[in-house]
Design goal:
Rossmann fold; 2 domains; seven-stranded antiparallel sheet; six-stranded mixed sheet
């Protein structure tokens, strides 16, 4: 198993159900074979004096928009204007993603609805050369080593009963370091983490700030999906939403609150098609220093999804 943080018996069933994904031989759809196939098209590494980041584009209502030209964008590093050298769309490159699903006790009230939404999104994303991993958490984390099929994801999520504590931050750390580690994937691939959770966390080994740093270093945007729960108190809900907002906005992702009047979940696959690599010309950066990063569009109805900070290697 890639990594399991376990407390009591609540993660035993998760580990058992994920066993087929964790221990099965590498299939044509996932693991090393797929990565080797896709790595035939690679992107040159960053040169001294430049940084490369994944960015996305949407309108004010979260809907996808065409990738703009680099001339319509501005960039600032620690409030200092820097030059945008290149903007390369990744529409034709594979999307490698991880689906993280909360199965803690707090998910009990909307478990069926959350499972249906998670499976639907996984299926919509898993087209063409796109491949996804699954991670499930309670007060422990189980993460697949192989790419999953939508039918497997559906079976696992339906069989796992909700209960126990919540280790959201640990789950994100596992996914960044093991499933979506850039050293194991083609450098030109689109990447994203989709989190189905209320945003609470009461058992993780790392705090929110460290989780954000891990995702920023990995260069992976986090997209959170929080289903509404009528039993939540306003103060609790406010705190959970603030945590999700920090995770998403700091990494270049977005928070989604599904509404019956808007198909926000249905728009996510199209939104990820607009993911692009932005190359920025920078002054000399200090090793491991964190810099504020701000990418903006001069176009009125285009919002740039980009990391709020850059951590120099």
């Amino acid at each position: 198993m890639s990594r399991v943080i376990t407390s009591g018996l609540q993660c035993v069933l998760i580990g058992f159900l994920l066993g087929v994904l964790l221990n099965s031989p590498t299939r044509a759809r996932g693991g090393t074979q797929s990565a080797d196939r896709a790595s035939s098209v690679t992107m040159a590494p960053s040169l001294p004096g430049e940084i490369r980041i994944l960015v996305g584009f949407r309108d004010g209502k979260g809907r996808p928009v065409p990738v703009p030209s680099k001339e319509t964008l501005t960039a600032r590093l620690d409030e200092t204007p820097i030059e945008i050298e290149d903007l390369r769309p990744l529409r034709n490159e594979p999307l490698i993603f991880s689906l993280i699903v909360d199965k803690s006790g707090s998910s009990r009230s909307n478990g069926d609805k959350q499972t249906a939404a998670a499976v639907s999104l996984f299926r919509a994303l898993s087209t063409g050369d796109n491949h996804g991993y699954l991670a499930v958490f309670k007060d422990g984390v189980s993460a697949s080593k192989q790419f999953a099929y939508p039918s497997e994801v559906e079976q696992i999520l339906k069989e796992i009963p909700p209960g126990g504590g919540t280790a959201l931050y640990d789950a994100i750390e596992v996914v960044c370091k093991e499933q979506l580690n850039s050293n194991l994937l083609p450098p030109n691939s689109r990447r994203a983490i989709f989190v189905f959770s209320d945003g609470g966390d009461n058992t993780s080994h790392i705090p929110l700030t460290k989780t954000i740093e891990v995702a920023q270093k990995a260069g992976i945007p986090i997209i959170s999906i929080k289903l509404r729960v009528d039993t939540e108190g306003k103060r609790q809900e406010k705190g959970e939403l603030a945590a999700l907002k920090s995770l998403t906005e700091s990494t270049g992702g977005m928070s989604v609150l599904p509404d019956e009047d808007r198909d926000e979940l249905g728009q996510l696959p199209s939104l990820l098609e607009g993911q692009s690599v932005l190359t920025l010309k920078t002054p000399e950066l200090k090793h491991k220093k964190t810099y504020t990063l701000k990418i903006e569009s001069l176009l009125k109805n285009v919002k740039v999804l980009s990391p709020a900070e850059f951590i120099a290697p």
